[in-house]
Design goal:
The complex is a heterodimer of chains A (about 450) and B (about 425). Chain A is α+β, with helices and mostly antiparallel strands. Chain A has 15 helices and 11 strands. Chain A has a 4-stranded antiparallel beta sheet. With about 425 residues, chain B is of the alpha/beta class. In chain B, a hairpin with a 5-residue loop joins β1 and β2.
């Protein structure tokens, strides 16, 4: 442990004294406060904050990722290149201890810098409304929609397979099945249709969605119904009229004594844009049950559809902004740890420039992994198994930085829950990073340290 | 191994370690071979070819050879930096890469590869920590070593700014920090000035006295000749000659007589005597070696207190390096004994070395006293200017450091010569 610690502190000293870290530190120290004041977003106070937190965290994450790659690679490759390793590895230091020491040093440096910069971002984010003299309405909106961590519940998927099969048989019997399309595709298409129908209301129809386990942080606060209308025929004024009912629907259904209030809202909303209905959180039943009903008023004279992906969602405050922010920062730390392991692995068998190149490719691929998977999936249809057994596992092995982007949670004030965080940690660190590290240990334990010089 | 050598070794390290009795050699190789292949796996070069080397305990062994003869490759294989293609290498009876073994080895590579951004003291501290030395022991050894290699005054300067010779000294210090039983030195004197070279040679001899085994690798023949007991000459990865230096170099068919200045008539008489034996005879005055002459000259300059920013060495040896007779492990002693009561609680820091105490009445006079001290051939301190002090050299010395240094060394060792030196 002594020697691991000695190597770790030496790695930190190297990063700091060789001024590798200094460039990144100075850049961030200047940019972050400037961004806080200069970015306006869409002009509203919320937009300003969202832009700042999004760009601030992304920039910090990006620069620290680069720093991690550079430091982790430089530390070992320069030791090998400049041969300081001759005097280190001939001391009673096992090779794995040297690697762990380097890794520990890089991670400690990351933690220190991450704490510093996220503290700056947090402070600026908290201070912005005061600095720009936000008015009362803005402050309330910010409290509800920014300085919070809202959990979003979407309606459970309904099983539509009986209807799909029925529709398929009907088509088959009537001989209207397209001949050149395989059965799976037709079924998929029919399933999609049926799902849409389950989320559509003809004029005069009421849709009811039921939610379980709704646990607002504080019943005195509000919860929000976030929705988007789609229609079959555009109404003349592009608005849809609807009556919303929110509360414990079982009380009406079974005629029991009313214990929690049931609220009704008459609304007129623009189609194809997001809207939120604010509802006092006390409508939620003791056991976390909540029902949301929508009545398509006959005068609309059109079918109203709630798109399956994002048509309807119940949002409620599940944690504080601070808690969410800390978890978002941890998400960045996981990335850094993964990259540190990757850098160490690359430096066990590659020279500095090649290792840097490799890590950057991995980093950028991981940053757009969603896009990569989609595009390769599309292209791969023709390459079938070749693609399936080669490129796809490789991309899947990469971490998905874009899928777990901290800004994606903080900007819409979405809850980044501990279980989700633990899942990311398990996947990114305990499996992927650990595998990289094991590979690094394997390579480094067996390679010859000295160069061939005769 | 003859009987004399055996008995000599037994007395010097009899109780030091039972392992010595079991294992005959400190370093032993069996058909050690290293072949460097090209990218396609075809054999290209035999760097070391079927090498069988045996180095006894407490021996100074010189590995000689021209450039590219496989000396360094052999060392690297001993230390586990390279893997042998064939054969085996043993250090202190085990694998050189095993932490238990490498904890007892000191290694100085062919160049001192140091972390440029660390200063001298931090460098030694880093290596001390790699050995897991406790903080207290580490501090004491570092001070003693800095003192020994004469870099105390520049201890807070990044080693990246050191000249090659100074870097070499730090390299040597790091090789000694664990009080090694086996010292592997690869070209220890490259880049050193003649004084430094002489000091390293003296150090090697001193270490031998203290029971260490030294494996020396060099192509500077003069160095090897002066210190080595036995040598092996490598060429093309093979041993071409091996044996005791004296035996190898002895010109058995010649005799040399050295006398003090005698009269010409006496010389004539001797000549006649020799001619009576039908032998040839040449008479001349012996010459000084250039090394001796150079050292004398520099010493004179030092005594005139001419300033230098370079390294200055003492002739002292780090006290902790286990002396020849003592049985106990010096490390255990340092840790177990209540050292703090005897020594000043804080080992000397460079801040203390930096002098400039204006209250000091007559610094120059003190300096002069120290300079004229007869016993110390190379008197370092007076001409050292601390990095932080940019004034004239006369100001740069206060009595304190000497005091402190003496304390550590006394504490660290009870080696009689040191006490004598200090008391004078």
């Amino acid at each position: 442990m002594n020697s691991i610690w000695a190597v770790a502190t030496n790695t930190i000293k190297q990063a700091l004294r060789m001024k590798i870290a200094a460039v990144f530190i100075i850049l961030l120290l200047i940019l972050l406060p400037v961004m806080g004041t200069a970015m306006t977003g869409d002009g509203t106070m919320k937009g300003r904050l969202q832009t700042f937190i999004s760009y601030g965290l992304s920039l910090t994450s990006f620069l620290l990722c680069l720093l991690t790659i550079v430091v982790s690679i430089y530390s070992l490759t320069s030791d090998i290149q400049q041969r300081q390793i001759y005097t280190v590895i001939t001391k009673p230091v096992r090779r794995f201890q040297l690697l762990f020491g380097k890794l520990l040093g890089v991670i400690l440096l990351d933690v220190a810098l991450l704490v510093l910069f996220s503290a700056i971002i947090y402070a600026v984010a908290i201070y912005i409304p005061t600095y720009f003299n936000a008015n009362e309405a803005d402050l309330i909106q910010l409290d509800n929609e920014f300085y919070t961590a809202r959990n979003g519940l979407i309606p459970a998927e309904v099983d539509v397979s009986p209807e799909v099969l029925e529709a398929y048989d009907k088509l088959k019997k009537s001989g209207r099945l397209p001949e050149d399309v395989p059965r799976e595709k037709i079924i998929a298409r029919l399933t999609e249709d049926q799902r849409r129908w389950k989320r559509a209301a003809v004029p005069g129809q009421q849709l009811i969605w039921e939610f379980q386990k709704v646990k607002p942080l504080d019943p005195k606060q509000s919860l929000f119904i976030r929705f988007k209308y789609d229609v079959s025929v555009n109404p003349p004024d592009l608005n849809v009229y609807g009556i919303w009912t929110v509360g414990d629907y079982r009380q009406i259904k079974y005629g029991t004594k009313i214990e929690t209030p049931i609220r009704n809202f008459d609304r007129k909303d623009l189609i194809r844009t997001f809207h939120e209905i604010e509802v006092p959180a006390n409508v939620v039943a003791e056991d976390g049950y909540l029902a949301v009903g929508f009545l398509n008023v006959p005068m609309n004279n059109t079918v109203v559809i709630f798109p399956p992906e994002d048509g309807l969602e119940v949002l409620y405050e599940a944690d504080t902004f601070t808690g969410n922010f800390i978890r978002a920062v941890l998400l960045i730390l996981f990335r850094l740890i993964f990259l540190a392991c990757l850098g160490i692995l690359a430096s066990t068998f590659l020279s500095f420039p090649v290792a840097i190149l490799l890590c950057l490719v991995v980093f950028f691929t991981a940053t757009v992994s969603g896009f990569c998977l989609e595009s390769f999936d599309f292209l791969g249809e023709n390459l079938s198994w070749v693609y399936f057994y080669t490129i796809r596992p490789l991309i899947l092995f990469l971490p998905q930085f874009d899928k777990f982007n901290p800004a994606q949670f903080l900007v819409p004030a979405r809850l980044l829950s501990w279980p989700l965080l633990a899942k990311v940690a398990g996947l990114m660190i305990c499996i992927k990073a650990l595998l990289l590290l094991l590979l690094a240990l394997l390579i480094f334990s067996f390679r010859e340290i000295a160069k061939v010089i005769i | 191994m003859n009987r004399e050598e055996l008995s000599e070794r037994n007395t010097s390290c009899a109780s030091r370690d039972a392992r010595y009795e079991i294992m005959e050699y400190a370093v032993e190789t069996f058909s050690l071979t290293k072949i460097f292949s090209d990218w396609w796996g075809r054999d290209k070069v035999y760097a070391v070819d079927d090498l069988n080397l045996q180095i006894r305990y407490n021996e100074v062994f010189g590995l000689l050879g021209p450039n590219g003869s496989g000396k360094t490759t052999t060392l690297k294989m001993l230390l586990g930096l390279l893997y042998p293609t064939k054969g085996r290498a043993l250090c202190l009876g085990g694998d050189g890469a095993d932490p238990k073994i490498s904890a007892r080895i000191g290694f100085l590579p062919e160049e001192s590869y140091l972390y440029r951004y660390l200063n001298a003291r931090e460098t030694l501290d880093f290596y001390g920590r790699l050995f897991g030395l406790p903080a207290k022991v580490r501090k004491m050894r570092i001070e003693a070593l800095l003192d020994m290699v004469g870099l105390k005054a520049v201890a807070n300067r990044p080693v990246g700014t050191f000249s090659k010779g100074m870097a070499r000294r730090i390299g040597l210090a790091q090789a000694l920090i664990n009080d090694p039983d086996l010292l592997i030195l690869d070209e220890p004197t490259t880049g050193l000035d003649p004084i430094g070279t002489r000091q390293i040679k003296d150090l090697i001899l001193e270490l031998k006295k203290r029971g260490k085994t030294v494996l020396l690798c060099s192509h500077l023949l003069a160095d090897v000749e002066d210190v080595c007991d036995r040598i092996a000459i490598l060429y093309g990865g093979k041993i071409q000659a091996e044996g005791h230096v004296k035996n190898l170099l002895l010109q058995a068919n010649k005799r040399q007589i050295t006398t003090s200045d005698i009269s010409d008539t006496a010389v004539e008489k001797i000549k006649q005597l020799i001619q009576g034996e039908h032998a040839d005879c040449v008479v001349s005055s012996p010459m000084d070696k250039l090394e001796t002459f150079f050292i004398k000259t520099v010493e004179t300059a030092q005594q005139q207190a001419q300033p230098t920013s370079g390294a200055v060495s003492t002739t002292r040896i780090g006290g902790f390096l286990a002396p020849e007779t003592p049985v106990e492990n010096i490390l255990d002693k340092l840790v177990s004994e209540p050292v703090s009561q005897e020594t000043p609680p804080e080992p000397p820091t460079t801040e203390r070395v930096v002098p400039v105490e204006t209250s000091e009445p007559k610094p120059d006079e003190q300096l002069l006293n120290k300079l004229t001290e007869p016993t110390r051939p190379v008197s370092p301190k007076p001409v050292v200017r601390s990095e932080k002090v940019k004034t004239e050299p006369g100001q740069a010395e206060a009595p304190k450091p000497e005091q402190v240094k003496k304390d550590i060394l006394e504490r660290l060792t009870d080696h009689p010569t040191h006490e004598k030196e200090d008391s004078e």
